C-alpha cells in the first residue's frame, strides 16, 4: 500500500461550483440611467443586483412588487386595534369576578351596568370599523383586471 489512501481527503472549505461565473463585464451608466436601473432593481424585490441584471439581459421574467404605504399603514393600525379589542375581551371576565369579589352585590351591579353600556358602545364602534374596512377593500384592494 505505498502509504497512499484510495479515499478522497476532505481539504475543507467551500465545495467548488460546477459552472462558476468567471467572466466579468463592466459598463457605465449616466445618472439618469443609473437611477432607472436602481428603481427597477428595488421594484423587483431581488436581493442580488448582478442576478437582476442577468435576468434583464437574458429576458427572464422579472416580478415587481408594489407596496402601497397607505394600505400597509391602514392594515397595521387595524391589526393594533384588533389586538386591543381582544385584550378587552380577555379581561372582561376578570373584571366581573373582581367586581363581585371586592364590592357589595349592589355596588358591583351598578359598576357592571356601566361596563355593559361601554361594551355596547364598543360593539357599535366595531361594526363601524368592519363597515369601513369593507369599503376600503372594495375601493382599493380588490381590483378586478
Q: How would you describe what is shown here?
A:
This protein has 145 residues and is mostly helical. It has two domains: 27-66, no CATH class; 69-141. Helices cover 65% and strands 0% of the residues. Helix 3 runs antiparallel to helix 4 (105-141). The longest helix has 37 residues, at 105-141. The N and C termini lie far apart (74 Å).
User: What share of the residues lie within helices?
Assistant: 55-70%
Number of strands: 0
One letter per element, helices H and strands E, the order comes to HHHH
Structural class: mainly alpha
Uncertain residue segments: none
Biggest pleated-sheet summary: none
The multimeric state of the shown protein is: single chain
Number of helices: 4
Strand content: under 5%
| Number of domain units | 2
Could you tell me the mean pLDDT?
Answer: 80
* Broad shape: elongated
Terminal-residue CA separation: 74 Å
Radius of gyration: 31 Å
